[in-house]
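I am still learning, so can you show me any protein sequence you like together with the matching structure tokens, please?
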Amino acid sequence: MAKIQAIRGTKDILPEELQYWQFIHNKISNLLECANYQEIRTPIFESSDLYDRGIGRDTDIVNKEMYRFHDRSNRDITLRPEGTAGIVRAFIENKMNYHHSLQRLWYSGPMFRYERPQSGRQRQFHQLGIEFLGSLDARADSEVIHLAISIFNNLNLKDLKLDLNSIGKAEDRSIYQAKLQEYLKQYYDDLDPDSQKRLISNPIRILDSKNINTQKILAEAPKISNFLSISSQRHFDAVCNYLKLLDIPYNINDKLVRGLDYYNDTAFEIKTLTSKGQDTVCGGGRYDSLVKQLGGVATPAVGCAIGLERLLLLAKENIELPSKYVDFYIATQGKKANEVGMKIMRFLHQKLFTIEIDVSSSNFGKQIKQANKKRAVACIIIGNQEVEQGTVTIKWMSNQQQEDMSIMQFEHSTSYLKKKILFYKNLKSY
């Protein structure tokens, strides 16, 4: 019988690795909580129409990468390839703007895209997103960028570059697109196959091509900065000014367009200069038309997403995980002792001690060795003698001292036990 394995492009996150994920998640959630951003969780699958209308039918995500299927009720369903469209759907459906005109939200969870797996890129991957809905002010853009940079700073990540651009409003892009198309048509035969297809359907996406020859052709192409409306240029200037005030260095990249159709005005990416696989670790921008496009009341918005696998690749070497201890390891021998041990386990668990009960039925010597391996602060020993006397023996592992307590005394000594555990944890010799 063939061995069943994880599907290509998916990866198990084992307990040892998960400690790093939890460390990063806790750091980020604390930082965002301090900025008064509220966590939101949306379903991992949605109606495919959400992404057709939201992301755009001519994007690579919709055309090539979505996990799309019909369910048993013949509904057209897609596993979410990104987070923003789902957040906007939830914002509209739950009438969130009626409660607060400004919504500062964040999310974290798995996304799905059918791409070629490589370091830092899986078909099931994880993203953390920051979304600020309800403000046209350039300070909102700058706040989102500032929070993304703060996340990287909090994880001691260096050698990062912020690329920034304005892609204008839909009317600006329409004029620019015609000029770009006109310029590129004369080089049609020299463009890579993907860019040839995009020339008709979505020429601005050609700016994002990784093909070297196409990039050489683009060097002399018209620049979108020359087609911005006065309001778009003012907005971009204001964002740049706020970033300077916040001491956030940036690089204006006039070829930066992002891969989703819903963006307007500000677009940005944060890249690592010490690439370990994919170099873009964060991307985002303003999407003022998306709420209306998906059936809501026109609401300006700006946001970004961070790839957590890529972030972990960069941050892991800087993370020093806190030492893990077991407060009490429970060693028992004999049927009655096992029963008492289970009651002690329940009591300690209710009092929020970290505990593990030995279920091996080994002799006490082996069980105490196991307590050492688990870095237990104390081992609770319950044998026939303890059962007969109604007591427990506590062995403090760092100095091998033992003390006996009646079970009733033990169950009224929570404060004492917590102080002793803290004392031994803080001992330098431990």
The CA atoms of residues 20 and 321 lie 7 Å apart. DSSP finds 17 helices and 16 strands in the chain. The chain has a mean pLDDT of 90. The longest strand covers residues 103-112.
